Every structure is written in C-alpha cells, then in structure tokens.
TrEMBL record, chain A:
It comes from Suhomyces tanzawaensis NRRL Y-17324. Residues 15-38 are annotated as: Disordered. Residues 28-38 have a biased composition (Acidic residues). This is Uncharacterized protein. GO terms for biological process: tRNA transcription by RNA polymerase III. GO terms for cellular component: RNA polymerase III complex. Signal peptide: none annotated. InterPro entries: RNA_pol_III_Rpc5. Pfam families: RPC5. The lineage of its organism: Eukaryota, Fungi, Dikarya, Ascomycota, Saccharomycotina.
TrEMBL record, chain B:
PANTHER family: DNA-DIRECTED RNA POLYMERASE I SUBUNIT 2. This is DNA-directed RNA polymerase subunit beta. DNA-dependent RNA polymerase catalyzes the transcription of DNA into RNA using the four ribonucleoside triphosphates as substrates. Second largest core component of RNA polymerase III which synthesizes small RNAs, such as 5S rRNA and tRNAs. Proposed to contribute to the polymerase catalytic activity and forms the polymerase active center together with the largest subunit. Pol III is composed of mobile elements and RPC2 is part of the core element with the central large cleft and probably a clamp element that moves to open and close the cleft. GO terms for biological process: termination of RNA polymerase III transcription; transcription initiation at RNA polymerase III promoter; tRNA transcription by RNA polymerase III. It comes from Suhomyces tanzawaensis NRRL Y-17324. Pfam families: RNA_pol_Rpb2_1, RNA_pol_Rpb2_2, RNA_pol_Rpb2_3, RNA_pol_Rpb2_4, RNA_pol_Rpb2_5, RNA_pol_Rpb2_6, RNA_pol_Rpb2_7.
Length: 268, 1156
C-alpha cells in the first residue's frame, strides 16, 4: 500500500482516517472541566512518527473520489508524474474496458482508448494534518500519527476527448492554411494546456492575470516522472513498518499549554 | 464617569460638590442589597461608558486609520516606472497624526476643533508614509513623508479630545457631552450617515412566483472589483449569469469548467443523495450533453467563447481557453481567489448556489428574506473613507508614476533624479479629494465606476438630541419613490438592534432608521486565524472531503463569511466549543456563529458592518451575572469588558440571536424551565433608541404617537452644548430657561439629556377654555411667559469676507458716517468707529452691521498704470444690511483669517423671543399644538393652593390619540412635585401608577390627578374636576416670527413681471390652480381678472386689428400703419407667450370684437 520513489511516498487513504493532531488534547481538557458526565472509556497511547529521511521523502494522501473502495490502486504499477512547482500530480491507469464502456463510441472516435488519466492539485497542509492508524498488536493498541505534506483528490480528466478535439481543430487549421502546417502536437496535460496559437513570449508575462500566470507557469514546467510501487513491494512494506513502529519508546512532553496553543492559533 | 473622577484629583475644592453632583441613577447606597433582577441594568451605563453613544462611528474610523490604511498601503505598495526598470518606490508604513519619531500618544492636528469651526478650516491631521526608493544606484529610506491631510473624526483616537477630562475639554472650548463622531470640514460639521446595504459575499436566494424563477445571487466585493453573480432557473433548467458573460451558461458546464468533470460528482455536490433534488436537477446534464461539453477544457472553451472581453490598451489578446480560465478564476464570484489552479473552492461555491436553487425549487419556503436584518450590513464612515482613500491613493500613485516617467524619459538629466521631489506635488490631491467628498457628499469611486451623492450631511445643531439623533441615523440605499412595502416594514429581526419607533413619516418612512441604545456595529476581523481554529475544532478541510460525503445526512457544512471551508459531523459540539472560546476571549467577541438547520450549515461571520448587541449568558436557566459581579461593577473594580472576558455577557448579531432563546426578564427563566434559555436581556427598554428613549411611559402610548415624538423631539429648542455661547453657527436656537423633565427615563440619564434638556415642565390643566383652544391649540398663561416660559433666543451668523484682488487692491471696512450733529446716520447706528457692529447694539431693518467697501478698480488689470492705481485707491460702499421684521442685537463679532489668507468677519446677531400666538409647542407624546391665545393669569382657573396653569390643553386631544403615557406622565410628575423627587417613566418600567397615586393621596390630592379648580373670571368652582399637573413641554423651532408674511406691493420677477415667490424675496401669495378653479366655478370673473392679471402682471399692448399682431408705440410694424391699433391690457405672460410663438414661426393673431 505504501509506495516510494524519488523521495515521494503515497499512502492510500482508504483505511486510514485523517485526524487533527490537537483535537484530542483539547477535548480531554475541556471535557474534564465542563462535562463531568462524559467519562473516559478507554485510553490508547498516541505515537507520533515521521518519515525516516524528511529531506528526500514526503508523505501525501491521495484520494480517489468516484472510485469505489473495493478497487484499490495498490496492485499494479502505474505511470505517475508530478509538477512540483505547480503542485500538480498526474496518474495514468489502464482503462477497464469490460464494464461501462461504450465500444461503439471508440469506433466513432477512431481512437484506441486504453488509458485513463487522473490528476489533481496537491494541497499543502502546512504541517497541520496527520495521518493516523490504530495499530493492534495483540492486546496492546496504539495510534500512530504521521505528518502529511499534502493531500490531493485525483479525478479523471477525460484527456482523450480533448485530444480528439485538439486533433480535429488542428486538422481544420491545417486544412485552412496548408502552407503553414503545424505538425504533431505533444500535449501532456489537458485541462490547462493553452493552445499553441498563443505566442508565449516573455513580453506580456506580467500583463496576464494571476490565474493565467499560474497556467503559464504550469505549462512551462516539465513533468518529473514517478515510480508507482505496489503495496506488496518490499520497499513499501519497510517504510510502512518504520512508520508504524519507528516512533515507539520515546516519550514526548509538551511545553505548550492549551491556552498558549489557542493563543498561537488565534493570533492575527 | 472617568472624566469626573479625573477632575476629582485636580480640584480638591470641588470635591464636595462633585459628590453631590454624582448622578443618582445608581439609586442605591453602598449598604443597599443588590438584586440581580433589578440591578442588572447597571450594565447599560457601563456599556455606554466603554462604547459611548456614537461608538460605531469612532470604532469604524479608528479601524480605518489604524488598520485599513495599512492594508491599503500594502495592496498598493509599489510604484514602478515604465521607463527605468531599475526604479522603484515602495511604501513601508503609514501613520495618521504622528511621526515615527514622535512620542506615543502624540496627536498632531492642525488646531483644536472649535477653532476650526470658527475659522472655516478643516480639522485634519497629516498622513505620513515611510518610503523606500532608488536614487541612481542607491536605495534610500525616507521616513515621515507627508502625502496629504486626513480629516479627523472628533473624539476618534486621532483627535485631541480623545480621553481628556472635562476641564481640558473646557480649555478647548468643547462640550464634554458632545458625542463626537463627525468631521469639521471647512468650518461645517459633517456627518457621514450610516448606510444600510445588502451583505456582500453572501448567497441570497429569491424567487418570483409569477415568473416561476428562482435565483441565487451573490455580490462579490474585493478591493479591485465589485460584481454580481447569479444562478438562476430558466424553464426549470439552471444557468449561471454574470454581467461579463454574454449569455447564461448552463450550470453543469460551469461546474465542469471549474474542474468537476464527472456527472456523478456534480450530482453529489448539488443534490446529495436526495432523490427529489436529483429528479429536479437531472435535466441539466442533458443540456450539457446536448452541447457536447464533457471535459473541463471543452467547458472552459464554451465559457471563454461567450465572455464579453473588455481589453485594455496593451493587454494581450487571450485565446478562448484563456478567456475561459480568466472568467472562472477571477471574474465569476470574484471574492474567492484561485491559487495553484485549485478551482475546488470556487466549484463548491457555485455548487452551493446551485444547491440552494434546487432546494428552493423543491420547497419554495427556502428563500431568503432581503429585508431580514441579518442579511444587511451597515457601511460606516471608516469604510466609506477607506474606499475613497484607496481611490485617491491609486490616483496619487499613477500621477506620481506619470511624473517620474516624464522625467526619466529625458535623455540627459543634469542632476541625479530624486523621486521625492516630485511626490510632493500631488499631495494636495489627497487632501482636496477627501475634503471635497466630505463637504459635498459626492462619493465618486473610479474603480467601481460608482457615483454616490448625499453621503454626508451637515450635523443638525438644533438641540443636543437632534445632533445625537443624527449620529445614530441609518439611511437605506432603497429608492424612496419605489412602491414596495417590504423594506419599509418593521422587521421582527430588528428587535433590540434598530429603534422600533424612530423613523420619519412620509416618503422616507421605514427607509431611514435609527440604532437602538445598546447596539454595536462590527468592524472587519481577520479571517485566517478563525479558519485555522475551525480545523482545530474538528472541522474537516473542504479540500479533503469527497463530494459524496459533503451532503451526507448528519454532515453540516461550515461556512466562514459565506464561503464553505469545511464540514463537520458534530455541528452542535463544534458551535459550542467555538462559543466557549469566544467567551473566554480567545476569539474576538464580535465573531458570530450560528447553525442553520434548514441549510444544514454552520455559519461563522467575521465581517464588518453587522449589528450586534450584548446579552447576559444564561446557563441551566441561571444567568451568569450574579450579584457579586454587579457589586464589583458598582465599586468600579470591573467595567463592561470584564463582563465580556469573564464570559458573563456576550455580543450576539442578528443571525446568532436567531439561534438563541432570549428571556426578557429573570422571571421568565423560571417559567421557562422546560426550555433551554440561552440568554437574558440586559434591559428591555434598550429596544428603543436615544430619541425614542426620551418619551416617558411610551409603552402606554399608541405606537404612531411615539414615532411622531421622535420626529418632533429633534425640532425642540433647548440647550445645544456647553459651548453653545462660543459657537458661531449659521442658525442656532437656545431655550432661555431649559429644565430637565420631572418625569425622566433611564435613557435620559444615560444620554445626559438632563444636562442639556430641551423643554420646560409646564403645569397643564386639561380643560376647555375660551374657544381659542380648538384643533389642539393651547392656551398660554401670560404671567408664565413673563416669567420665561417658552422663551428662546435665535442667533444667526452673517459672514463677510474681505477679498484681495489680483491688482493688489483689497476690500476694507470703513467707519460709520455721521450727520451734522456728529451722530451716526440711521443706517450706521449700530456701527462702531471700526465699521463693525458694536456688541450689544440693536440692529433694525435697513441698518448696517458691517460697512464693507470694495475698491472701485478691483477688476482692472495688474499691468500698466499700477502706480496711479495705488495712489488713487477709491472704494465703494457695499454694506451688509440687516433685514427682518424684528430688530436683532449684535451678539458676537469675530475677525479672523481663513486658510486662503483672506480676512473673515463673522457677525452673530441675536433675537430673544417670547412665545406668541401661533408658536408651536409639543409634549413628549406626539401631541403638538400652537398657541391659540395668551391669557392674563388672573383670568385663568386656579386650584386650592392658588396655582394656575401655564398651559391649558383641550381634552379632545386625548380620545383619538390615545396617549395614555401623557396622562401617566402628568400623575407621576405631580407626585414628583409633591414628593420632591424626580420620577421615572422608563419604557417597560418606571414609577408605577399605583405608587404615584398613593403619593398624591398622601399629600392630600385625588388619586386620579384631578383637582377642583375655580374659575378665574367668576371665581366660582368649576363644575368638573380638572386633570391638573406638570407635563414636560417642548417649544418647537416653527415660530410665527420666521413665517409671518404679507405683501401689498413688492418686487416682481424680471422675466414674467409677476410677483416674486417666497417669503425671503418678499413674494406674493399665490392664487393657485385649485383656487382659480373655485373662482371660475363661482363665476366671479372680475375677481379672477383682478387676481390673475391686474394684481399680477397687467401689461398694456398695442394690437393691430388688421393683422392681429402686436405693435408698439401706436404703430404696427407689420402693416406699417397706425390705423387699426387698439390698446388693451393683457397679462405680461400672455404677451411673452405670443412673442415666443412668433420666434418659432407661429403667428398668433388676435381678432378683437366689440365689448358692447
């Protein structure tokens, strides 16, 4: 379930809940003072842990909205790429053509569609989010919390449709101006790719609105490819193990009081 | 109170007096028992001590100068040059009224405010900025650069009057009771009225049943732009509408453009799992499919194609796709910013709008109410000033940039360019811009292409209460002419926030409102810390939630200032925890949070302009404020803020109020033990505002009467301020012997109306007398008038400017002229040898009070024969004549220099007026009447003690008006007189009638307030007992002397030769259309002729009976003959009409026949 490559590591979200780290201490204090009829039923030790080498590794939560839990993406190797500056992640999966697949449409489009593209923006968490897991080891239980760098929701982008559009458009333009024929577009990403008729010269970079500047930056940035590791892979397993048990034994005491923490938060 | 204490220390000798002068409103001595139910109202003076009566204005202005200015500077911090890429100027900081080097607490203002009033100056403080800029290669820091002057609101933290005591106030010629909150611009006091608007950045859902349209709209407002986005239904399909997009875009396409490409997800976001909603929405998918839009890129292209592009010069041409991205990212719902191509938040916002529409389509009751006070925001002086300042500052920067570009463009410059030299040139623009806007009231903002007139008003100084009433006024943006009742109606949600009584009658009825006594208007609060706090309190980030769970049952969306930021499964706990933090002071007390179960949402608001009020927190049906807390308050150990920080009292805005159960009285808590009461009112009489608070026993009156009194209370003549005799205003009325009312209210004490009252306690007999009392006319006692009842002074300012002319000549004041005996000639009787009216001199009609002379050669050019001109400087008299039916006395003469170096003379003329027939009086119950007759005291009825009334009022005034409060006022007043006490008529409280009757009986009077009177004429006992006692009467500003007017002959208008119009021009009395109709109907033709022609504009013309046109001098110019000329009289207006027709090539020919 844990994959690692080029310093990036992804944890599937399916069976792990995301908690706020400060949720529990606050509530405990609050409840003890204010609500006496809310007794403590059980107590489970909390373990905080991080990746072993933070400088080269990072932890991200990937969500697949619209994809059922029964079909986890941890069995095969998929193609993934990231634009780090633009915080953009793309994963390519083979398309399941057995179900809910209109083969006639493919014929109509005259393309072989074998791949599905999922992509999403990596939303930085600013250190506020932790991924947690309740680890049962016989009778002893613990909750392991690991800070997450960013979260993202990966959605299909139907890139193949845009590609067809693009082809049609190119063809039309090519027909319109035979002399100045444009050849072979290499479109990497669909949703934000600006078409080539724009002259991306440096001259008007500043004149664009902020959102278009983002688009421009995105377009100019190169994809850096990632390796997708299945859960069963040894590397993933060791990382997982390290995260689960690596933080045991060290007892942390907090110097921050609850009041200090709230003050820190609410300071404008 | 703090002021009083401070003066204690200074003046030991006064201490004994001060003790006596301590207001008795605390009512209790130190050893008295404290009862929470009775004494919790003490929180109110504590609140007003901290907040003041016009705190909303001051808070807003303080926020503007301290916080908002810095934000504006940060948003516009860089000035770059197009010519030299190396050049930059950066604003680092901004301050108003003090330099970076000056000691803390320095308040650098031009002059004390009163001096500004007298000298027609603007009370302002310098605006300093710190800048960093390049000069050649060097980077230079410059501190305390003045870029203009900011008008300062009186009593704000930039004003020298802030936090000083009564003594120091006196030194500045200021009244300590004056609330401040206004500006002094060019010598006039200007108020920026509170403006009421629909709230920004919030979704409002409305429906039109007739057209079957449901629409959700949101007005996005950012620093740069203001735009409105709609999600509307059209033929049961949903579209997004925006001004910058040519046609309405199907909602599914918009959502796809915003990155939600899967239909499943759209359905989840808009409808959730509710099949009703899904059925309604499904048709929209078909529309998108029909249009062949499946992917985000297709959708963006679709949107981009329909964007109305307004390209600025030099901006690049955008492709369709770019247009689409730009539209979705920045134009639509502009207040949500898109960063890193993460459109999710915006998509969710649009989906929320669509969801609200679907919900309303399914259940029409889900619409929002525009008139609900929770959907309104009040715009105050600070916000308006900040809009204006940002506009001026942008202009300033662009002017500055243009200037440096011009200089930098020059190829060879002799010296190194210093940008600072050219920045000073434009500093006048900011000063002038601010001044002009405040003095004219025209707010023109280029950025928003907005032009608003009538934002500021001259502060009414008729009386203290009229000034105060003006400061609490709220004007609405609605058009007065529109015939909609909704915005004018009394909204249940305005309880406790806006006064229920104080609104004008007539066209502005219900549109102009007033704040209630204990309201606070919020200023903007930082959003980010609250957002972080939400996540800590268990709200899940919106970016981490998948669309299916968002609307899952039991999930509540969490909205911060209208924007979805997350969701929670435990909304009750979330809200509770949040409130707990607010009560401990960790979160600003003005942040509101409430649950909306219909929308399954928790709304948090931190924005400015919400109205809120403090309430006592109740837990387990026990109020948190206990006796020992109030004891601390009375001892001065605690102030109001301590109650807030200890979580005993909290502010609720209108929306949060709806989420609470508020008990009116403590007794309601026990009665409502089954319900979870959350709050307790501090005092119910705070539903009324400052002006309505003057009315004694208003809860016994018919409600329109209270509204009438609110209008009239502002017209009452009384004391204006402690500095009233130092003021030189255009027109001021003073009451000569104002009295505080016998029956007062707690509001009166709180607003210190008892120190600056406007009225007198008149002994009133409710009976018929003389027949001159019909139609509410009053009978006045002549001796009372002799003793000073209703006497007032009117002072009027006359300004004379001595100008200087370009040819070095100037106006002068020349001395009086004398006759042979050496006495001043009649017109110059009031003048002294200096040519100015002598103080105390009587000025009659036609006499001169300033003998100004202008040079005869003022218009001549400066050049040429200037030596001659200087030698023979001759002047022509242009004296200022006094005009008026009654003489005046010179009260004050002030000579000064205004800011353009011209001499300024202000002469204040005074009249003392005793009441006369026709002067208008009113009690405090909307019962107005004019003086119908003045009767000798000996002819008036008298009672056993020999007391005769000051006023006799006809009893017919009562039955239809139902002002029972006035009757109770009389009884309470009478009891107070007999008892030697001042009684209370506070709303929903006050002295009880039963107790008052008891006092009357004890003192040997009838419990009913009726006395046996004897006729002053016959000496016989009157047949009935007469309701007899003191009622507070106000003299209103409408006096006969200002209105009386008659004319026999007089001036005529030049064009029409008809008599002039209006009293001020000695005009005639018009026989109007309707009167004319009557005369015609009656057949009084000769009267008609006389009124309409002979007494008006009769004109003798020569008519040529041959051609029918007019000739002159017995000669027809058309026929070249005098043969057929006939003289006749026609109205000059008719002659004018004929001539005008001729000028249009129409010949009106008269055919004359014989009369007999």
């Amino acid at each position: 379930m844990v994959k690692q490559e080029k310093g990036l590591l992804f944890v599937d979200e399916e069976d792990e809940r995301v908690y706020d780290k400060e949720e529990s201490p606050y509530y405990q204090e609050d409840e003890q003072e204010e609500i006496p009829d809310d007794p403590i039923i059980d107590s489970i030790p909390l373990v905080m842990n991080t990746l072993s080498s933070r400088s080269t590794q990072s932890l991200h939560v990937l969500q697949y909205p619209g994809r059922p839990k029964t079909r986890p993406l941890d069995q095969e190797e998929y193609r993934a790429a990231v634009k780090e500056e633009s915080n953009y992640l793309e994963v390519r999966l083979p398309l399941d053509t057995n179900k809910f697949f209109n083969a006639n449409k493919v014929e109509e489009w005259g393309e072989t569609i074998g791949e599905q593209t999922l992509n999403g923006v990596l939303d930085k968490t600013d250190g506020g989010y932790y991924v947690g897991q309740i680890v049962k080891d016989g009778d002893s239980r613990k909750i392991v919390l690991v800070p997450v760098d960013s979260t993202t929701q990966l959605r299909p982008s139907f890139k193949y449709i845009d590609d067809i559009d693009q082809m049609a458009q190119t063809q039309r333009r090519a027909e319109a101006s035979e002399a100045n024929k444009n050849t072979n577009f290499q479109i990497l990403q669909s949703s934000a790719k600006s078409s080539s008729q724009i002259t991306n010269t440096e001259g008007f970079g500043n004149a664009l609105g902020e959102s278009l500047r983002h688009v421009k930056k995105f377009d100019e940035e190169e994809w850096s490819h990632l390796k997708w590791t299945p859960t069963q892979d040894e590397l993933a397993q060791t990382t997982k193990e390290q995260l689960r048990n690596g933080g045991d034994g060290v007892e942390l005491t907090t110097a921050t009081t609850f009041g200090d923490y709230i003050n820190e938060l609410t300071r404008a | 109170m703090s002021k009083r204490k401070a003066s204690h220390v200074e003046a030991e000798s006064d201490e004994a007096f001060q003790e006596l002068l301590q207001p008795t409103y605390k009512g209790k001595k130190l050893l008295d028992e404290i009862n929470t139910a009775e004494d919790k109202w003490n929180l109110l003076p504590a609140f007003l001590k901290v907040k003041g009566l016009v705190k909303q204005h001051l808070d807003s202005f303080n926020y503007f100068v301290d916080v908002d200015l810095k934000k504006i500077i940060r948003a516009n911090e860089l000035v770059l040059s197009d010519v030299d890429p190396e050049f930059y100027l950066k604003y680092l900081d901004i301050r108003v009224g003090h330099k970076s080097s000056s000691a803390p607490g320095t308040k650098e203002v031009i002059l004390p405010p009163h001096e500004c009033r007298l000298r027609d100056l603007t009370y302002s403080a310098p605006i300093y900025v710190d800048v960093e800029y390049t000069r050649g290669r060097k980077i230079i820091m410059h501190k305390d650069l003045e870029i203009g002057r900011m008008p300062v609101m009186l009593r704000s933290n930039k004003c020298i009057l802030d936090g000083i005591d009564e003594k120091q106030m006196a030194r500045f010629d200021e009244c300590p009771i004056d609330p401040g909150g206004y500006f002094v611009v060019n010598g006039t006091e200007k108020v920026i009225l509170v403006q009421e608007q629909l709230s920004k950045n919030r979704i409002i859902v409305e429906s039109d049943d007739k057209k079957g349209i449901v629409q959700a709209s949101v007005t996005s407002s950012t620093h740069e732009r203001k735009s409105k986005t709609y999600v509307i239904t059209k033929n049961d399909k949903i579209y997004l509408k925006h001004n910058s997009i040519g046609e309405d875009i199907p909602i599914v396409i918009v959502l796809k453009a915003a990155g939600i490409t899967s239909d499943l997800e759209i359905l989840q976001l808009v409808c959730g799992a509710d099949s009703n909603y899904q059925d309604l929405f499904v048709v929209n998918f078909e529309e998108a499919a029909k249009l062949q839009v499946f992917t985000q890129q297709q959708a963006l292209n679709y949107v981009g194609k329909r964007v109305k592009t307004i390209r600025r010069a030099g901006a690049p041409k955008l492709s369709q796709l770019q247009e689409g991205i730009e539209a979705i990212a920045t134009t639509i719902i502009a207040h949500i910013t898109v960063s890193d191509l993460q459109f999710r938040e915006k998509a969710l916002y649009i989906a929320t709008m669509a969801r609200r529409v679907i919900m309303t389509m399914h259940n029409p009751k889900m619409v929002d109410d525009r008139d609900y006070v929770g959907n309104k925001r009040l715009e105050l002086a600070g916000q308006l000033m900040s809009l204006l300042f940002e506009d001026l500052f942008k202009k300033f920067n662009s002017d500055f940039k243009a200037n440096i570009d011009k200089i930098l463009k020059k190829p060879s410059r002799t010296s190194e360019f210093d940008a600072l030299l050219s920045i000073n040139i434009h500093s006048n623009n900011i000063t002038m811009g601010l001044n002009r806007a405040i003095s004219t009231g025209n707010w023109s903002l280029k950025r928003f292409k907005m032009e608003r007139a009538g934002v500021t008003h001259v502060l009414s100084r008729l009386s203290y209460i009229s000034a105060l009433g003006m400061m609490t006024r709220i004007s609405s943006q609605f058009e007065k002419s529109r015939k909609v009742s909704g915005p004018r109606a009394l909204q249940p949600s305005q309880f406790g926030m806006l006064c229920t009584s104080d609104t004008p009658e007539g066209e502005a009825c219900g549109l102009v409102k007033n704040l209630a006594l204990m309201t606070h208007i919020t200023t903007d609060d930082e959003e980010l810390p609250i957002r972080k706090l939400c996540y800590v309190l268990g709200c899940e980030d919106i970016l981490g939630i998948d669309s299916a769970t968002l609307h899952a049952p039991g999930n509540f969306g969490i909205f911060l200032n209208g924007t979805l930021v997350g969701s929670s499964r435990f909304p009750a706990k979330f809200v509770n925890d949040f409130r707990q933090l607010r009560r401990t002071g960790k979160v600003s007390e003005f942040v509101s949070i409430y649950t909306n179960t219909h929308q399954r949402a928790v709304h948090i608001a931190t924005d400015g302009g919400r109205i809120c009020r403090p309430l006592i927190i109740v837990e387990n049906n026990i109020p948190r404020v206990k006796a020992h807390h109030l004891f601390k308050l009375q001892n001065g150990d605690w102030d109001f803020d301590d109650f807030l920080s200890h979580g005993l009292v909290e502010y609720l805005d209108v929306n949060e109020e709806n989420d609470s159960l508020i008990a009116l009285y403590e007794k309601d808590l026990e009665e409502n033990a089954a319900n979870q009461v959350t709050h307790l009112e501090i005092e119910p009489f705070t539903v009324l505002g400052a002006v309505a608070g003057l009315i004694p026993y208003p809860h016994h009156n018919q409600s329109p009467r209270n509204t009438y009194q609110c209008a009239m209370g502002k017209q009452a003549i009384g004391a204006i301020a402690y500095n009233q005799f130092r003021r030189i205003d255009t027109l001021l009325y003073f009451m000569v012997y104002p009295q505080q009312p016998m029956v007062k209210t707690k509001t009166i004490e709180l607003i210190e109306y008892d120190k600056l009252p406007a009225g007198q306690n008149a002994t009133v007999a409710v009976m018929s007398y003389s027949g001159y009392d019909i139609e509410d006319a009053l009978v006045l006692n002549k001796s009372s008038i002799d003793r000073g009842f209703g006497r007032c002074q009117v002072v009027r300012k006359n300004t004379i400017q001595l100008k200087r002319y370009p040819n070095h000549t100037k106006d002068i004041v020349s001395g009086m002229r004398v006759d042979e005996e050496g006495n001043a000639i009649f017109p110059h009787k009031a003048l002294g040898p200096d040519g100015l009216g002598e103080i105390g001199a009587r000025v009659e009609n036609g006499q001169v009070y300033v003998n100004k002379c202008v040079p005869t050669n003022a218009g001549e050019s400066v050049l040429g024969h200037n030596e001659q001109a200087q030698q023979a400087e001759s002047h022509r008299e242009t004296p200022a004549y006094y005009k008026g039916p009654e003489p005046s006395y010179v009260d004050q003469v002030m000579m000064s220099v205004s800011d353009n170096d011209q001499a300024l003379i202000k002469v204040l003329l005074r009249q003392t007026r005793r009441p006369e027939l026709g002067d208008k009086f009113s009690s405090r119950h909307g019962q107005k009447g004019v003086c119908g007759i003045i009767v000798q005291q000996e002819d008036l009825p008298f009672n056993d003690q020999g007391i005769s009334p000051d006023i006799i009022m006809n009893p017919h005034g009562f039955p239809s008006r139902m002002t029972v409060g006035k009757m109770i006022e009389l009884i309470s007043g009478k009891a107070g007189v007999l008892n030697g006490s001042l009684e209370y008529g506070t709303c929903f409280g006050g002295s009880k009638l039963e107790d008052m009757s008891k006092i009357l009986v004890e003192k040997g009077f009838s419990y009913s307030g009726k006395d046996m009177l004897y006729s002053g004429i016959t000496g016989e006992c009157l047949q009935a007992y007469i309701f007899f006692g003191p009622i507070y009467y106000q003299k209103l500003k409408h006096m006969v002397l200002d209105k009386m007017h008659a004319r026999a002959r007089g001036p005529r208008a030049v064009l029409t030769r008809q008599p002039t119009e209006g009293r001020s021009r000695d005009g005639g009395l018009r026989l109007g259309e309707m009167e004319r109709d009557c005369v015609i109907a009656y057949g009084a033709s000769q009267l008609l002729l006389e009124r309409l022609m002979i007494s008006s504009d009769a004109f003798e013309v020569d008519i040529c009976n041959n051609c029918g046109l007019m000739g002159y001098n017995s000669w027809c110019t058309t026929c070249k003959s005098s043969e057929h000329i006939i003289k006749m009289t026609i109205p000059y207006a008719a002659k004018l009409l004929f001539q005008e027709l001729i000028s249009m090539n129409i010949a009106p020919r008269l055919k004359l026949g014989d009369v007999f």
